[in-house]
Amino acid sequence: MTFKVDFKVRDYECDLQGIVNNSVYFNYLEHARHEFLHAKGVDFAKLAREKINLVVLRSEMDYKASLVPGDEFYVAVEPQRVSRLKFAFKQTVYRKHDDKVMLSALVIGTSVNEKGRPFLPEEVDNLFK
Predict the structure, then answer these.
(1) 13 conformational bin, left if phi > 0, alpha if psi -120 to 50, beta if neither
(2) Can you give the pTM of this predicted structure?
(3) Which terminus of the chain has fewer Cβ atoms in its 10 Å neighbourhood, N or C?
(4) DSSP 115
(5) Which residues, at least 6 apart from 36, have a Cβ–Cβ distance to it below 8 Å?
């Protein structure tokens, strides 16, 4: 199942070249993942209060084209199970007016308990069943 979050490029997200700065895409992707979790009933902040932290282990991004100020776009999120303790989010940024792929990403993560040991709480584990 694919989950989608809509965005619009704001002027201050762009660099001197007039395109979205590459670091801003990390923010778009993170926000989309958090919205996905929220929509599935996983409370990121509540987990953190319980000393369960969802952490990114690896991010791979392939930049295909550049977004510019005013572009409307959406981020698609597809959860994937990697292993018993790791999960991934395949994410794609699409420009809305033509559905052009602007960026493809794979973000791999896990969750750790208060001792820093990896484990998946039930609500996270259920996302990948």
Answers:
(1) alpha
(2) 0.93
(3) C
(4) T
(5) 3, 5, 77, 79, 89
Q: What is the pLDDT of residues 45-85, one digit of tens each?
A: 999 999 999 999 999 999 999 999 999 999 999 999 999 99
The C-alpha atoms of residue 128 and residue 45 are separated, in whole angstroms, by: 20
Neighbours of 123 (CB within 10 A): 16
In this structure, are residues 86 and 127 in contact, taking their beta carbons and an 8 Å threshold? no
Nearest 10 degrees: CA dihedral of 27, 85, 41, 71? 20
DSSP code, position 48:
H
Q: Which residue is associated with the tokens 């919205």?
A: 35
Q: Which domains does the chain have, with CATH numbers?
A: 3-128 (3.10.129.10)
**Polymer length of the chain:** 129
